[in-house]
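for the writeup, i need someone to sanity check this before i put it in the appendix. the sequnce is what the collaborator sent (i think, or maybe the updated version? ugh). structure was predicted straight from it, no edits. if anything looks off just tell me and ill rerun, i have time this weekend
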Amino acid sequence: MDDIDAGCRIASRIFGLKYIAPYKYVDLDDLESFIRSNVSILLDGAKSFAVRVRRTGIHSFTSRDIESRIGGIVKASSNLKVNLDNPDRTIHIEIHDDECYVYTERIDAPGGLPLGTSSRIVSLVSGGIDSPVATWLMMKRGCPATILFAYFPLGGDESDLRRFLAVVRILRDWHIGEEMKIYSYRHDYALKEIRRIADSYTCVLCRRMMYRVACRVAEMEGAKAIVTGENLAQVASQTLDNLYAIDEASTLPVLRPLIGLEKEDSMRIARMIGTYEASITPVSSGCRPIKGCWAKPGKPTTKAVLDRVRELESMIDVERLVDEALSSLKDISSLL
């Protein structure tokens, strides 16, 4: 049973599957005797039951015929009530030609598309709640993920890096059958220069720099899009005007699976996939807990003007900063 339980836990995280069902294989000729001998096991603790049959192949009977016959056997052997609307236990029987698969348990799986059926993405993951959820949703649509972490150390504490790694370990457990590479780069060099000249536009220029680095990593990885956890108007940098100005820096499509969700929706999905507790782990600057980004201006712009963005970027050497970021790029997959 330990092997079956372990297999079910893994299979329940495979994209493309709606559910999994641990079954008992029975030859069609032995189906009735098997049910008769195992009623107490199949209905352990139940007070009512139903039988559901699905068939493929050519048979002299219908699915309803089998449901009626097996239901009669179960009722005679157990004296339990039949409840077709809300049974305590359902005996499922799938018949394929002369082979039968009998089960009473269905374990939910994520559904979606099998991982690898869509092109690779580069996902900007911070370790907070939203970006891991956005990555998982794109994985559910069949996209293998390369993870990119923009690292700006907070007083040498590395709690933000540890939180990021904890979150990505959980994401990797869902990334079955495809390689997940994890990269980090030093974003603080560029952010210090941006903060010096950008003032209220700091968040916009910061995101544009992240997108440029992500596009270069995507080129290395053969990825076709970058993914972020941005959500329309959730924070100051994510207004439609700002997203328009930020997108101009990207040479690839920018996918935002959370764009129209409420924060509560993201939190619900994070709890479901297992990243929530890791994502809310406090990070600190040295010994002082912090909330949010240390570079965020007091009054960030919510209506960025593209001409002003370009003017500000002309005051810094953008290409040099991108090259410096890429020179610090590290594959940290081995840290998981």
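The two ends are 29 Å apart (CA to CA). The CA atoms of residues 120 and 264 lie 28 Å apart.
thx in advance!!
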